Amino acid sequence: MSDMAIRNIVIVGGGTAGWMTAAPLALRLGTSCNIVLVESPEIGTVGVGESTLPTIRYYNLALGLDGTDFVRRTQATFKLGIEFQDWGHVGNRFFHGFSDFGPSIENRPAYMYWLRLSRARKDMPSYEEWSVATAMARAHRFMPPYGDRPSVTNAYSYAFQFDAGLYAAYLRDYATERGVQRIEGTVGDVEQHPETGFITAVTLRDGRRVEGDLFIDCTGFRGLLIEGVYQAGYEDWSAMLPCNSAQAVPSASADKLTPFTRAAAKSAGWTWRIPLQHRTGNGHVYCDAFMSDEEAGRVLLDGLDTEALDAPRQLRFTAGRRRKSWVKNCVAIGLSSGFLEPLESTSINIVELAVGWLLQYFPDRDCRPELADEFNRLVAQRYEFVRDFIVLHYKLTNRDDSEFWRYCANMPIPDSLRHQIDLFRASGRVTLYDPEGFSMDSHASIMLGLGIRPETGDPLIDRMDLKRLDEHFGKVRATIRQAVGAMPDHGEFVAQLAAGARRKS
């Protein structure tokens, strides 16, 4: 090992971000590096990120976690996508599923062929009937995709809905078993090298001193190190993401476990519903310039479909990101790096990516600025791509029933997003700025779901024989229906899996 090698890593802050950072570092670095995580019992975690993207499965797989044990320990259910209610206009309902709309034809996505058929047939069924994930969700059915050979019936993915606090505890056990030292305490002071400005130690309020070569800031919105020490700055995106408040409350578990998250638009924001095995996660994201906290709480509680288990908990935030997430020997991960509302369940995904990029550009003790520059570029780019995708949900609205929605319809948006909307509206094509992010079909789901119908089609698709195309789509739809009909009920699948895990333990 080089004399300049990192030997001591200090993670300040626990919660989901802290332990999601600690676990892969412990696995990768083993005993060659001392890893300490400092978390305070006085500072609560946000803990509302209970809905995820399919990438969480690969994060878990990289750690070698047992799938059935994970489902039991985190009270997880399966997630096939998000159901949107009253977005675009009151009474609207559409689904963003983790699948395409059938196999591509001649390197063009299937939804574009559906657009051709829908222009020719007034009775054409919804494009959603060609999404396996959507069909499964509507029927409340679930089973993992099977078989290595791509087919109509396994062309979908899935994520999880879980208790974020239990997940953090699960990863804490994983990390501490692999040598991570947990210190309970509250940081009172931060020491820096007089010449380099690098952080050298944090001192706890009880006088204990924790030295390190690399410090990872997982202190949430406060950004105790990245902002408190380095004044990294913050890009404020509230002009195009005006929601700045949330209230969260758990309620009793539902009789029917739905394999999806629900996002229902309200007069000044939206509410979420996330079904877990032991309870239901609920929340209301809103802008306090258009709705009082008292009214927001009433909207949340009145919309529950099971009994509330606690009083709503208030959260405040400003949508945006740090101008730099890595400064000198400090790396911010999680809410200390930035925040985008959980409309598309991206918070945990950004943590996964940030930890992966930290390992990819892992430094020596000199923390070369070129490594930080690349990390900062990747993180900033990811936040901006996700920002645009979330703004899309608000901008494409025909609602004028409240001041909030009138603001969203007229608010400024980035040129990059404007181009995506204009291109789809004109031709049904999607510009993908981030091929590793939300797919072409995901963008089409949102834009079609919000009511955009392209003005023209693809001239090459228009040349195809309409009868053959109609027959093909009919067969695909019938195959999906048959396959979904044979799948088990989602709640029963989860119960059997959890029971099997209990027997194994």
Describe this structure in words.
The chain is of the alpha+beta class and 505 residues long. Helices cover 37% and strands 19% of the residues. The chain contains 15 helices and 21 strands. The chain has a 7-stranded mixed beta sheet with strand order 5-4-14-15-16-13-17. A 6-stranded mixed beta sheet has the order 7-2-1-11-20-19. It has a 3-stranded antiparallel beta sheet with strand order 8-9-10, with no helix packed on it. Helix 1 (15-29) packs parallel to helix 6 (164-177) and helix 1 (15-29) packs parallel to helix 8 (347-360). The mean pLDDT is 95.
User: Separation of termini?
Assistant: 39 Å
Radius of gyration: 24 Å
User: What's the mean pLDDT score?
Assistant: 95
Structural class: alpha+beta
> Unreliable segments (pLDDT under 50, ≥5 consecutive)?
none
Keywords:
505 residues; globular; alpha+beta; 15 helices; 37% helix; seven-stranded mixed beta sheet; six-stranded mixed beta sheet
Short description:
With 505 residues, this protein is of the alpha+beta class. The chain is 37% helix and 19% strand. It has a seven-stranded mixed β-sheet. The protein has a six-stranded mixed β-sheet with strand order 7-2-1-11-20-19. The protein has a three-stranded antiparallel β-sheet with strand order 8-9-10, with no helix packed on it.
Q: How is the secondary structure organized here?
A:
Layout: E1 8-12, H1 15-29, E2 34-39, H2 55-63, H3 67-74, E3 77-79, E4 81-85, E5 93-97, H4 110-120, H5 132-139, E6 159-161, H6 164-177, E7 181-184, E8 187-192, E9 199-204, E10 209-211, E11 214-217, E12 234-236, E13 245-252, E14 261-266, E15 269-275, E16 279-286, H7 293-302, E17 313-316, E18 320-322, E19 326-327, E20 330-332, E21 338-339, H8 347-360, H9 369-395, H10 403-410, H11 415-427, H12 440-449, H13 459-462, H14 466-485, H15 490-504
Parallel strand pairs: 1-2, 1-11, 2-7, 4-14, 11-20
Antiparallel strand pairs: 3-6, 4-5, 8-9, 9-10, 12-18, 13-16, 13-17, 14-15, 15-16, 18-21, 19-20
Helix pairs in contact: 1-6, 1-8, 3-15, 4-14, 5-14, 8-9
